Amino acid sequence: MADRLLELEVFVRVAERGNLSQVAREIGLSQPSVSRILNDLEARIGARLLARTSRKVVATEAGQVYLDQIRPLLAELGAAADTAAGNEELRGQLRVELSVTFAMRALIPRLPSLLAEHPNLSIELMMDDRRRSLVEEGADVAIRLGLLDNSSLMARKVGQTPRLLVAAPDYIARHGLPASPADLAHHQVIFGPSDSSGSTLQGQIGPGAGFVLPESPRIRVSSSAGVTACVVAGLGVAFGSGWMFDTELNDGRLLRLLPEFPLPSIPIHALFPAGRQPSKRARGFADWLSKSLNSA
Q: Of 4, 196, 198, 211, which one has the greatest count of Cβ atoms within 10 A?
């Protein structure tokens, strides 16, 4: 039975990751051993489950059907074992996909408490300001800020953060302090990775907010850290979360603008791959993050 469970776990991981070498490293086996396990599984099932190319491994039509059926079964087996043992500890490897700035400023400072509470848990942080595919990248959970795209992924709101408008003192000295949201029409606005257009950012701020933004910004940055660097350099005003600018606001490098015109908060969600029950590690991480963010 143990060999059968290992077969299923290897198959699921390879189908999700699309990479034999990556799965071999994750579970501590050699690549030939992983290939042999998959060959034995296909021989026992009597069907070709995976198609191997020079670049990637993908599930066949039969393999996708099999994958959809066994993923929830494996999750239930793991949950049942933990329940029977009365074990609330999180263990094993958890792969978390999230933006660079949120990881560095909001998550990593909180991680010592999580790892101290769960000494057998290991975490891989997949830090990237691009929104990647959970399944293709093999992540167990992703942390997303802002409005969610239409998606089949399972989502759970774990918190929210204030949205602020900021600028550097040098910029304000040169361009003046905006007295109302409409004054932003005459300012340089720095667009970040989620601000594809002025209308998009306007929609995120909220209807009727009165903020008039340019459709074509002079500066567009592909990372949140880059937005912070640009606004500190006095290149314009920028919108962002409280944690994105908190260090610079505290040390005086940035000023908060128009605080009398509060903006809608930015929601924070944990996303899980569709089609299967989230692992105990992923659910426990989301629980912990929600408590940590909301107790701050």
A: 211
Give the architecture-level CATH label for domain 95-153+272-295: 3-Layer(aba) Sandwich (3.40)
Single-letter amino acid code for the residue at 225: A
pLDDT at residue 242 is higher than 60: yes
Contact 46, 29 (CB under 8 A): no
The β-bridge partners of 239 are 165
Best-predicted range by mean pLDDT (82-91, 136-145, 182-191): 182-191
Residue with token string 């009165």: 210
- Higher-confidence residue of 47 and 73: namely 47
Residue 154 Rama label (left phi>0; alpha psi -120 to 50; beta): beta
- The predicted model scores a pTM of 0.69
Q: In this structure, are strands 266-272 and 154-161 parallel, antiparallel, or unpaired? A: antiparallel
CATH 2.40.50.100 fits 2-85, yes or no: no
Q: CATH 3.40.190.10 in the chain, residues?
A: 95-153+272-295, 163-264
CATH class of 163-264: alpha beta
Tokens of 182: 């409409």
